[in-house]
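ingest -> validate -> predict -> emit
validate: passed (alphabet ok, no gaps, 425 aa)
predict: started
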Amino acid sequence: MNLKQKTADVFKTVFPCRGEEFLVFSGFTLLYGILATKIALGYTIIFDNRIPWDAYFSFDNRAIVMTGGGFERHPLANYFFGWIREFALLVSGGKMDANFRLVLAWFSVVTVSLSLVQIYKYLRNITKLPIWLSYLIVVFFSLFSTNILLSFTPETYTYTLFFLCLFNYYAALKLRKDEKISMLALTAGTVAVGGLTVTNAVKVFIPVLFEKEFFKNFKNFGNAVLRGIVAVAVFALLFMYRLNFDYMKFLSKTGEQYEKFSKPKVTPLWDMMASWFLGGNVLFSNFITRDYHNRKGFEYKALFMDVYSSWIPYIFIAVLLALVIWAYIKNFKNKLVQILMISFAVDIIIHCILKFGLHTSYIYGGHFVFVYPLLLGWLCYSYRNSPTNFSAILILVITMTVYLGINNFIRLEEFFSFLNAFYQK
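emit:
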C-alpha cells in the first residue's frame, strides 16, 4: 500500500467521510457550538487568568491551558496545549479575552463532535447497526454530562475522549480483519493517549492482546512485544526529556499526588461510586457552591457536584450499569467487547478500588464513558434476531434518552444561573 493510500485511509478513519457521518459531525458541532459560543463570549469561566483551578467541577482550565497540568499525570500535555494556546493567542491578538476563550472552546466543540463521529462509525462499521439505531445511541451518548461539559472545556479529558474513541475504532477495524496494529499506530496512540493522562497508556496495549494467535504463535508474540517496547521507549524518552531525565522527580511527585487525591471523604464509598464515578459522568447530580481563592488574594465561587438527592437517578444509573453488564455477558466471547470491558476495568481499579480522585470522579468521564454507547450497540446487535428482547431494549434506551435530556437540560439551566451570578463579563 503506497503512502497516498495510507494517508487517505487515515483521513477516512479520523474524519467523517460519508453523508450520514457528516450529518452527525455538523449537527453536534452546531449544537455544542452554540452552547460553547454563548459561554465563551458571555462569561469568563472557561478561562480566567486569576483562577488556576476548580472554577467548575474541578476542571483545571487555566493550569491545563498554560502548562499542560502536572507532569506526573499529564506528561506530554504541555506540548499539546502549547500549540493550542499559541494559536488562540494568534487569533486574539495576544490577549486572553473573549476571543481567546472562544478559540479554546471551539477546539473542544470540534473534538467532542469528532468523538461522536467515532462512536457512530464504530456502531455502523463494526457493530453493523442500522443507521437509525446508530443515530439513537449517539444522541443518547451526546446528552451525557461528560460530553456537554467537555464540549466547551479546554481540558485533557476532552482530547483523551477523542483519542480513546479513535484508537478503539481503529483497533476494532484491524482486529476484525485479523490484522496487527502497526508499530506506528501503537506508538502514536501511546504518545497521544498516555501523553495526556499517563495511566491511560495501558489501554492502548489492550487490543494487542487479542490479535490473532497472540499467545499461540511465538513469532506473533515476539512481534507484539517488539512493537510494545518501541512504543514505550518512545513515550519514555519524550517524558524523560521533559523532566531532564530526572526520573526520581516523577516517582516522588506521583506518590504525593496519590496521597493527596486518595484520602477518604465523608461521603460513603458506595455513594461516591454511584453518584460520581458511574453517575456524574452521565447524569448531572445536584450542584453545590463553595468559596475558593487563588492563594494570591483573589476570591471566587466554585461549583461542584453533590450526590443524588432522589431515588430516580440511582435507578437510572443502575439500569444503565445492568445494560452494560448484560451486554458483556451476552457477548462474552467477542474479543472487541472484552477490550472495552478491560479498558473500563482499568478506571474501576484506579478510582473505585485504589480510590484515586473518587471524590471528584465525575470529571474523569472522558477516560471511559465511550464504553457505554459501544456496549449498548453490542447488546442491540446480540438481539437483532429477537424482536421481543430487541423492542424491550429499544424502549428502555428511548425512555432513558428522554429522561437524560430533560434532567441534564434542567441542570444546565442551573449552571447558567451560577454563571450569571458570578462569572458575567
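The longest helix spans residues 387-422.
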